[in-house]
Amino acid sequence: MPSLPRISPTLLVLLATLGASMSIFSDMIIAALPVVQAAFAANDRDTQQLVSLFFIATALMALWVGALADAYGRRPVVL
């Protein structure tokens, strides 16, 4: 059975932070919706589209970063 490569503690913390950041950012954007709505005098539909655009952009970035990670390896892409 082949041995698994060692992961440095710094890289492990970086990957864990990147993994947790999506849930933190989505909670932040949802909590900020009333402020955004008041600041830009937007209606409910426009502020709800902000959440949709956030998740669409996140999904597209995941596809793009995934393709880069496949081509160059995870470590160079993350760093």
Description:
By secondary structure, this protein is mainly α. Helices cover about 80% and strands about 0% of the residues. Helix 1 runs antiparallel to helix 3 (about 45-70) and helix 2 (about 35-40) packs across helix 3 (about 45-70). The protein is elongated, with a radius of gyration of 18 Å.
Layout of secondary structure:
Layout: H1 9-31, H2 33-40, H3 44-72, H4 74-78
Number of DSSP strands? 0
Beta-strand residue fraction:
under 5%
- Could you state the order of secondary-structure elements as H and E? HHHH
Task: Supply the helix-strand structural class.
Answer: mainly alpha
Low-confidence region ranges = none
**Helix content, binned percent:** over 70%
> How many separate helices?
4
- The chain-level mean pLDDT equals 82
Radius of gyration: 18 Å
Q: Alpha-carbon distance between the termini? A: 29 Å
Q: Could you describe the largest sheet, including whether it forms a barrel?
A: none
